[in-house]
Specification:
The structure holds 2 protein chains of 2 kinds. In chain A, 38% of the residues lie in helices and 27% in strands. Chain A has 16 helices and 34 strands. In chain A, the strands form 9 sheets. In chain A, strands 6, 7, 8, 9 and 10 form a 5-stranded antiparallel sheet that branches. In chain A, strands 11, 12, 13, 14 and 15 form a 5-stranded antiparallel sheet that branches. A 4-stranded antiparallel sheet of chain A has the order 1-30-29-28, with no helix packed on it. In chain A, a hairpin with a 5-residue loop joins strand 26 and strand 27. In chain A, 44% of the residues are buried. Chain B is an alpha+beta fold. Chain B folds into 3 domains: 52-130; 132-271; 289-420 and 443-511, MetI-like fold, CATH 1.10.3720.10. Chain B has helices at residues 13-43, 90-93, 147-193, 196-226, 260-276, 289-320, 325-337, 342-365, 367-372, 384-409, 412-420, 425-454, 457-462, 489-498, 503-541, and strands at 52-55, 60-62, 64-70, 81-86, 97-101, 105-109, 115-119, 125-133, 139-141, 231-235, 241-245, 249-253, 279-280, 285-286. In chain B, the strands form 4 sheets. In chain B, strands 7, 8, 9, 10, 11 and 12 form a 6-stranded antiparallel sheet that branches. Chain B has a 3-stranded antiparallel sheet with strand order 2-1-6, with no helix packed on it. In chain B, helix 3 (147-193) packs antiparallel against helix 4, helix 10 crosses helix 12 (425-454) and helix 14 runs antiparallel to helix 15. The longest helix of chain B is centred in the first third of the chain and has 47 residues, at 147-193. Chain B is globular and about 90 Å long. The two termini of chain B are 55 Å apart. Classes of the chains: A alpha+beta, B alpha+beta. The interface between A and B is large, with 126 and 110 residues.
Chain lengths: 766, 544
C-alpha cells in the first residue's frame, strides 16, 4: 500500500502507460483492507476463544442475586404460613387456628377457614409449606391434621384460576390427656408416618409420638392405623429445640445448656445414639438456633455468640474397633453477626438461610461460602420457606408481614474451595479432594474438586515423560551428531509419521492389545527393557577396546545397525529369563489355593497393599511415548543440529573425542532448545485425551502407585461433557477444567517459545 | 571403562552407542506399531483354513482360530495357553467365540466339506452342509456333483432378493418416513396458526404418504414371501441340524477347499465390502462406507474453511502487520495455539458453536421447526458443520505457521523485483508470493488435514455418532446437510473398541478400521513431507 503513495500521481502523464490503472489501485486497496480485516479477525477469534472459556466459567464465582419482591400484610396473629407452587396464593395460620388465603399480587383475601373444635383450643401450630400440611396441637394433647390443596381450573378463555381448599382430619389423641400441646412435628418415614407432640408436665418436657401406617384397602381406599402413643426420650430434662428429619430416621433434641442428644429410629423404637455439646469450648455453650440441611444428614448449629458449626453423620471408628455412623463436626462456619435466630434449609440443595444479628445470610453448607447477605425485616422472623426450585424464599415476621425475595443463584454449590480446596463432604470421614459429579439421588452432594484430576494429569504426564524423554533425547543426540546424513533423511520423516499417529489408535492398541498382553509377562518386559541400556553401553565399551582394524569395520554413524542384532539378542534372553526371575523374587502364597505362585501382580498386591490394574499408568506412559517422543525429538534434534559447526570443529581440533565434544560443547550450547522441546512434549502429554480415556480405568483416585489408573482433566471432559446439561454447575466445572488445560499448556508453550528465541539469539552471536 | 582402554581409544564411546539405543527404540516403536496394525488389519480379510477340533471333554469345535493367550492364573514359569475359536452360529451357541485350553485339544483335522457362511443376522456360521433345499423344493445332497453350482446360483438369486428388499425398506420407506415427519411438523404448525387451507392440504398429504407406506410394506412382504426361499440344511459341530435360509447368506466359502487364488478373491471381495458397504450387526460386520464418507466430507470442509483464513492471517502477519512487540506476542500466541489440547477446542466448539451459534441460528431461522417438532434442535446440536469449524480452528495455527514460513522463504529478490517493475503490493502477493509459496501452503493444509482426520476427542463433543441413519450428503435438497451428525473412522475405532457389547466380534473390525485410518493419515503425511522436500530442493537453487 505504501508503494502506491510513492507514485507521482498528480503530474498529468501524457502517456497512459505510466499511470497505474485505477482498477489496480482499487484492487490493491480493497485486498489490503480485506487481508487486514481477515488477519485481525482471526487473531481476535483466537484470543476470543480464551475469553469465551473464561466467560463460561465466570458465573461459578459470582454470588447469589437476591432481591426483595415486596411484603404482604397479614394478620399479626399469624404464626405459620404456606404457599402454592408458584407462590401466588400464600396462606397464613393464626395462633387460634384460623387459616387465611391471600392473593400475593394485591393482598386481597381469597378464603378464610376456621377449625371447629368445640371446647378444645389450638395451642400449637406447625406448617410444612412444601407438602401443604398444617398440624394443630390442641389443648387436650391431641393433634389435628389440616390438608391444604390448590385446584387449578381453566375457564373458556384458557385463563387459570386457583381455588384453595382446606380439609381438616379427625384429631388424634397423642399426648398425655388434659395437657396442652406446646409443639407438634410430622415426618414421613419409609413405612410409617410419625407424629410427635411436646407437652410440659410439672415443668418437665414430655415428648410423645404415634406412628400412622397407611395401608391400601381392597377398594383402593387408604386405611390408616394409628399406633398406641409412646413416650420418646423420657430421660431429657430440658428441650429447647427438636429436629425431626422429614424421613423420620432420627431425632435430635437440643437441651438448655447446649447439650444435643440424638436418637435413631428404626421404625419401631427410638434408641439413644449419642450426645454432644457443639459449643463446649465456647463461653456460652447454649445452642441459639439449629436447622437440618436438605438431605437430612447434616445439622447447622448457631450459638448465642453467632458461632456456626455443621454436624453430620459419618462412619467413625468406635473404641471397640467397629466403624459406625455417628454424628461428628464437619465444618466450623464463619461467625455470624449476632445470636442465631433461626436456620432454614433450602429444598434441593445444601443452602440455608441463617437469621442472626438483624441480618439474613444465604449460605452453602458444603463449601461454607456466603452466597448473599441482606438486612432482616423488622420483627422476629417466625418462619422462612424456600420455593421448591430455589428461585425465591418467603419469611413471616412477627409484625404481620409476609416478606418475599427472589433468588438468582445457578451455582450454589460452587466456590473456589469447591474446585481447589479440601472439603469435608457429608458421609465422608474427613476432608478430602473428591471429584464425583453425579449420583442417583437428588440429595447427593456434588463433588467438583479438580485436584484429583490435576493429580491424574500430572501422574500420566510424569510417566509419559519418564519413558519418552530418555528415548527422545538420546535419539536426538545420536541422529544430529553421529548418524550418517543419508540415514538422517529417512529417520526424520519416520519420526514425523510417528507424531501423526492418531491418538485414538494408540489408545485402542494400549487398552485392548498391549495391556492384556503385557499383564502376565510384566517381569519379562522389565527384564528386557532393563537389559537394553547396560547392553548398549557394554557394546560401545567392547567396540572401543577392540583392535583398530576390527574397529574400523564399524563406520562412524552406523553403530546402531551393529547394535540392533546384539540388543535384540540380549532382549530376547532377558525376556526368556523373565519367568525365572519372577519365580525367584516374586513368589507369594496364592490366597485362593494357599500354594506358592510366582506372580508379580499378586506379589505387588500383597506386599504393598496397593491395587494392581491391567490398564495402569505404565501402559499409559509407554503409549503416550508415541505421542511425546516425536515432538521432543524433532525440536531437540533441530536445536542440536543447528549448533554452529565452528564450535564442533574447534572442540574436535583441540583433541576432544566426539562424545566429549557432544557432551561438553554441543549439548550445553543447545540446552535451551532441548528444554523447550521437553516443555512442548510436556504440554502434549498434559492434553492427551484418547489414550488416557482408553488405556486407564478413569477412576479419579490420588495414588502414586504406578500399577493403578487415573483420571486426567482431558479424559474427564471427554467422558462427562457429552452428558452435562448446558449451563449447569457440572458443565461449567468441566469448562473450568478446560480453562486450566488451556492456560497450563499455553503458559508452558510460551515459556518454551521464549527459550527457543533466546537460543536463536545465542547462535547469532556465535 | 575409560581406564581400561588404550590411549588410541576415543573416550565415551559407550555413551555414543547408548544414544544409538534411543534411536533404535524410537524406530522400533514406529515400525512395530505400523506392522502390528498392518498384520492384524490385513488378516481380517484373509480366510484361513478352519479346523474341526476334538476336545478332551468330548466336544467338537468347528471354528476359525482367533487368538491365543496365556491362561489367567497359570504360573509365570510354565505358562499354559488357551485358544479362542470363532465358532459362529450365535443363535445356537449363545456366543460366537469360544475359549479352549490348548492342552485339552486332542486332535485337529481340516475336512474339505466345512462351509463358512457370512450372514445378515447373528454373525457368521461354520457348518458341515448336508443338502440344499432349492427354491422349487428339490433337495440336492452334498454328495451330488450338482450341489455346488446349484448352491452358488441360489445364493446369487437370494442376494438379489435381499438387495431388492433393502432398497424398499431402507431407502424408499425411509424417504416416505422422512417426508411424513416433515408433513407432520407442517401440520402441527398449520393447526396452531389455524390455517384451514393448509391443514386440509397437509392432512391430504399425510394420508397419501400413509397409503404409499402401506403399499411399500405390502411390496416388501410380497418380495419376502414370493421370492426364492432356498435354504441350506447342514449340521453344526455338535451334530445339530441347522437350516439357514439363503436370503440370510451374504457370502459362502469352503475354507479348507479354497486354493490361494480363491483366497485372494475372497480377500478382495471382503475388502470391497469393508470399504463400500454399510455396517451391520452393531457395526461389528459389514462395511465402513458412512464412516469413510463422513471423515472425508468433514476433512474437506475443514480444509475449505481453514485454508483461506489461515492464508489470509499469515499474509497479514507477514506482509501487512507492523513489526514490533505486539506482532511478536501475536505470533507466539498463534504458535502456541497448536499446543493447546484438542479437547479444549472441543469444549469451545460445544459451548460456542453448538450452544451459542447453533442455538441462535435455530432461534432465528428454525423457530417453527423448534416449536412444532418437540423442541428438536437443528443446528443447536452437534453436527457436521460444527465439527468442521471446530477442527478448522484447531488446525488454524498449523496452516498459519506453514504459510508464514513459506512466505518468508520466498527470496527477497523476487519480491523486490516485482515491486520495482511497478506491481502493486496485492499484485506482488497474488502473482509472486502466493505461487512461490503454494507448495508450502499445501504442505500446511495437508498436515492440517492429517491432524483433522485423526482427531477424535473434540469430535466426540460436537457431533460424531456411532451410527448415523443418513449420510450428510444425499439426493434431497439442499443435498449437503451440514446439520446432520455423521460417522467418523477415529470415533468408530473408539466406539467399537470400547463401547461394543460384543468385544470379541468387534475386534477384527477395529483392527481393520485402525488400519484404514492409519493408511489415510500416514498417506497424507507422506504427501506433505514429499511436497516439502521438493519445495526445499526448489528454493535451494533459487537466488537472484
Amino acid at each position: 500500500m505504501d508503494m502506491s503513495d510513492k507514485k507521482p500521481a498528480p503530474a498529468p502523464a501524457p502517456e497512459s502507460r505510466f499511470t497505474v490503472s485505477p482498477m489496480t489501485l482499487a484492487a490493491d486497496r480493497w485486498m489490503g483492507r480485506l487481508i487486514r480485516i481477515g488477519g485481525v479477525g482471526v487473531v481476535l477469534a483466537v484470543f476470543g476463544m480464551l475469553a469465551f472459556l473464561i466467560y463460561q466459567v465466570f458465573p461459578l464465582f459470582t454470588g447469589a442475586k437476591v432481591a426483595p419482591v415486596g411484603a404482604l400484610s397479614v394478620p399479626a396473629a399469624a404464626v405459620a404460613f404456606g404457599e402454592d407452587e408458584y407462590g401466588d396464593f400464600p396462606f397464613v395460620v393464626q395462633s387460634d387456628g384460623k387459616v387465611i388465603f391471600q392473593r400475593a399480587k394485591d393482598g386481597s383475601k381469597l378464603l378464610e377457614w376456621s377449625p371447629t373444635l368445640g371446647d378444645r383450643r389450638v395451642t400449637a401450630v406447625r406448617s410444612y409449606p412444601r407438602s401443604g400440611l398444617v398440624f394443630f396441637g390442641l389443648s387436650d394433647g391431641s393433634v389435628q391434621e389440616i390438608r391444604i390443596a390448590y385446584r387449578s381450573t381453566f375457564d373458556a378463555a384458557g385463563k387459570r384460576a386457583v381455588e384453595p381448599s382446606v380439609t381438616a382430619l379427625e384429631p388424634i389423641a397423642i399426648g398425655k390427656p388434659g395437657l396442652p400441646c406446646v409443639d407438634v412435628w410430622n415426618a414421613k418415614g419409609a413405612q410409617s408416618r410419625l407424629l410427635l407432640v411436646r407437652q410440659e408436665s410439672a415443668g418437665k418436657p414430655l415428648l410423645t409420638a404415634v406412628r400412622l401406617t397407611e395401608r391400601k384397602g381392597l377398594g383402593g381406599k387408604a386405611k390408616v392405623t394409628v399406633s398406641a402413643p409412646f413416650v420418646v426420650a423420657a430421660e431429657v430434662n430440658s428441650v429447647e429445640q427438636v429436629l425431626l428429619p422429614s424421613t423420620a430416621e432420627s431425632l435430635i433434641i437440643v437441651g438448655k445448656s447446649g447439650e444435643v442428644r440424638t436418637y435413631a429410629d428404626d421404625g419401631t423404637a427410638f434408641t439413644f445414639l449419642q450426645s454432644f455439646v457443639p459449643f463446649k469450648d465456647s463461653k456460652d455453650t447454649a445452642v441459639a438456633s439449629s436447622g437440618l440441611i436438605f438431605g437430612n444428614v447434616s445439622v447447622v448449629f448457631v450459638s448465642r455468640a453467632g458461632e456456626q458449626q455443621v454436624w453430620s453423620m459419618y462412619p467413625q471408628l468406635q473404641p471397640d474397633g467397629k466403624s459406625l455412623r455417628r454424628w461428628g463436626k464437619i465444618h466450623d462456619g464463619e461467625v455470624l453477626a449476632g445470636a442465631g435466630e433461626g436456620v432454614y434449609a433450602a429444598e434441593g440443595n445444601k443452602c440455608y438461610i441463617a437469621v442472626a444479628g438483624g441480618k439474613l445470610q444465604l449460605r452453602n453448607m458444603t463449601t461454607g461460602t456466603l452466597r448473599w447477605e441482606g438486612d432482616a425485616p423488622a420483627g422476629t422472623i417466625r418462619q422462612v420457606a424456600f420455593a421448591g426450585n430455589y428461585d425465591r424464599f418467603t419469611a413471616l415476621s412477627a409484625d404481620g408481614k409476609l416478606h418475599r425475595w427472589s433468588i438468582v443463584d445457578h451455582h450454589p454449590e460452587s466456590s473456589w474451595d469447591a474446585f481447589f480446596g479440601k472439603i469435608w463432604y457429608e458421609g465422608a470421614s474427613g476432608p478430602d479432594y473428591t471429584w464425583q459429579s453425579s449420583a442417583g439421588s437428588d440429595e447427593f452432594e456434588a463433588k467438583y474438586s479438580l485436584i484429583p484430576l490435576l493429580y491424574g494429569t500430572a501422574k500420566g504426564t510424569i510417566f509419559a515423560l519418564l519413558f519418552a524423554l530418555p528415548i527422545a533425547l538420546t535419539a536426538a543426540i545420536y541422529v544430529s551428531q553421529f548418524l550418517r546424513p543419508e540415514y538422517r533423511n529417512v529417520v526424520k520423516p519416520v519420526m514425523e509419521i510417528m507424531a501423526s499417529l492418531p491418538s485414538v489408535v494408540l489408545g485402542f492398541l494400549a487398552g485392548l492389545w498391549l495391556a492384556p498382553l503385557v499383564d502376565p509377562r510384566l517381569i519379562s518386559l522389565f527384564c528386557a527393557v532393563g537389559i537394553l541400556a547396560p547392553a548398549a553401553l557394554f557394546a560401545g565399551f567392547l567396540w572401543s577396546v577392540l583392535p583398530q582394524p576390527v574397529r574400523r569395520q564399524v563406520k562412524p554413524g552406523m553403530e546402531f545397525l551393529w547394535l540392533l542384532p546384539f540388543l535384540a539378542l540380549c532382549a530376547y534372553f532377558a525376556w526368556q529369563a523373565g519367568p525365572a526371575v519372577e519365580a525367584a523374587f516374586f513368589t507369594v502364597k496364592d490366597t485362593a489355593s494357599g500354594l506358592p505362585i510366582a506372580d508379580f501382580r499378586e506379589w505387588w498386591r500383597q506386599t504393598t497393599g496397593e491395587t494392581y490394574d491391567s490398564r495402569n499408568s505404565l501402559v499409559v506412559g509407554f503409549v503416550m511415548g508415541f505421542a511425546v517422543i516425536p515432538i521432543v525429538f524433532t525440536i531437540a534434534e533441530d536445536s542440536l543440529s543447528n549448533v554452529p559447526n565452528s564450535l564442533i570443529s574447534g572442540s574436535l581440533a583441540l583433541g576432544a573425542s566426539r562424545w566429549q565434544t557432544v557432551w561438553s560443547v554441543v549439548v550445553p550450547t543447545a540446552i535451551s532448545g532441548i528444554v523447550s522441546g521437553v516443555m512442548i512434549g510436556f504440554g502434549r502429554a498434559i492434553g492427551e485425551t484418547m489414550i488416557v480415556v482408553m488405556a486407564t480405568g478413569n477412576t479419579a483416585v490420588m495414588e502414586a502407585n504406578p500399577f493403578s489408573g487415573m483420571r486426567t482433566l482431558s479424559a474427564n471432559i471427554a467422558v462427562e461433557l457429552p452428558e452435562a446439561a448446558a449451563g449447569h454447575t457440572h458443565y461449567r466445572a468441566l469448562f473450568l477444567g478446560a480453562c486450566c488445560l488451556f492456560l497450563l499448556t499455553f503458559v508452558i508453550n510460551t515459556l518454551a517459545e521464549i527459550l527457543r528465541q533466546r537460543l536463536r539469539e545465542r547462535y547469532k552471536v556465535v | 571403562m575409560d581406564k581400561s582402554s588404550d590411549s588410541s581409544t576415543p573416550r565415551g564411546e559407550g555413551w555414543v552407542w547408548f544414544t544409538g539405543l534411543g534411536l533404535i527404540i524410537g524406530l522400533g516403536m514406529v515400525i512395530g506399531l505400523l506392522s502390528l496394525v498392518v498384520m492384524n488389519g490385513v488378516t481380517v480379510f484373509w480366510a484361513p483354513k478352519v479346523p474341526v477340533a476334538l476336545v478332551d471333554d468330548g466336544r467338537t469345535i468347528i471354528g476359525q482360530l482367533a487368538q491365543r493367550r496365556i491362561r489367567a492364573g497359570s504360573p509365570a514359569d510354565h505358562p499354559r495357553y488357551e485358544l479362542q475359536y470363532q465358532v459362529g452360529l450365535r443363535e445356537l451357541n449363545g456366543n460366537s467365540y469360544l475359549w479352549v485350553d490348548e492342552a485339552k485339544i486332542k486332535s485337529e483335522s481340516f475336512p474339505a466339506d466345512v462351509l463358512g457362511l457370512e450372514r445378515v443376522e447373528n454373525g457368521p456360521a461354520f457348518v458341515r452342509p448336508l443338502s440344499l433345499r432349492k427354491s422349487d423344493g428339490k433337495l440336492i445332497a452334498i454328495t451330488d456333483s450338482a450341489f455346488e453350482p446349484a448352491f452358488q446360483a441360489e445364493v446369487a438369486a437370494a442376494s438379489a432378493v435381499r438387495e431388492k428388499l433393502v432398497e424398499i425398506t431402507r431407502h424408499r420407506i425411509g424417504d416416505v418416513n422422512e417426508e411424513m415427519d416433515k408433513a407432520r411438523v407442517a401440520l402441527r404448525r398449520a393447526e396452531d396458526l389455524k390455517l384451514a387451507a393448509e391443514i386440509a392440504d397437509r392432512r391430504r398429504q399425510i394420508a397419501g404418504l400413509e397409503v404409499r407406506f402401506a403399499s411399500l410394506q405390502a411390496e416388501a412382504k410380497k418380495v419376502v414371501e414370493g421370492g426364492a426361499v432356498a435354504s441350506l440344511v447342514s449340521k453344526d459341530a455338535a451334530g445339530r441340524e441347522v437350516v439357514v435360509p439363503l436370503t440370510q447368506v451374504i457370502r459362502a466359502w469352503f475354507p479348507n477347499r479354497l486354493d490361494t487364488w480363491g483366497r485372494v478373491q475372497l480377500f478382495f471381495s471382503r475388502l470391497g465390502e469393508f470399504i463400500f458397504d454399510e455396517p451391520r450387526e452393531a457395526n461389528t460386520e459389514g462395511g465402513l462406507m458412512p464412516a469413510i464418507f463422513g471423515t472425508l466430507v468433514m476433512t474437506v470442509f475443514m480444509s475449505l474453511m481453514v485454508t483461506p483464513f489461515g492464508v489470509i492471517t499469515a499474509i497479514y502477519l507477514r506482509e501487512y502487520a507492523q513489526n514490533g512487540p505486539v506482532l511478536r506476542i501475536v505470533r507466539i500466541s498463534v504458535n502456541n495455539l497448536a499446543g493447546v489440547p484438542s479437547i479444549v477446542f472441543g469444549v469451545f466448539g460445544l459451548g460456542f458453536f453448538v450452544y451459542v451459534l447453533g442455538g441462535s441460528i435455530d432461534q432465528l431461522f428454525f423457530a417453527d421447526q423448534l416449536k412444532y417438532n418437540n423442541n428438536t434442535p437443528v443446528f443447536g446440536t452437534g453436527g457436521l458443520l460444527w465439527c468442521s469449524l471446530t477442527l478448522a480452528l484447531m488446525t488454524l495455527p498449523v496452516v498459519i505457521v506453514a504459510t508464514e514460513e513459506a512466505l518468508a522463504a520466498v527470496p527477497r529478490g523476487m519480491r523486490e523485483a516485482s515491486l520495482a517493475t511497478g506491481a502493486s503490493k496485492w499484485q506482488t502477493i497474488r502473482d509472486i508470493l502466493l505461487p512461490a509459496s503454494a507448495p508450502g501452503i499445501l504442505t500446511g493444509v495437508i498436515l492440517a488435514m492429517a491432524r483433522g482426520a485423526g482427531e477424535v476427542a473434540p469430535l466426540m463433543l460436537v457431533g460424531v455418532v456411532k451410527l448415523a441413519p443418513t449420510l450428510p450428503f444425499d439426493g434431497s435438497a439442499p443435498f449437503l446437510h451440514m446439520d446432520r451428525k455423521f460417522m467418523h473412522l477415529g470415533f468408530h475405532v473408539y466406539d467399537l473398541g470400547f463401547q461394543s457389547p460384543d468385544s470379541d466380534a468387534a475386534r477384527p473390525m477395529v483392527f481393520a478400521t485402525t488400519l484404514l485410518l492409519i493408511v489415510l493419515v500416514v498417506c497424507l503425511n507422506i504427501g506433505a513431507i514429499w511436497i516439502r522436500n521438493r519445495l526445499r530442493a526448489r528454493f535451494k537453487g533459487a537466488s537472484f
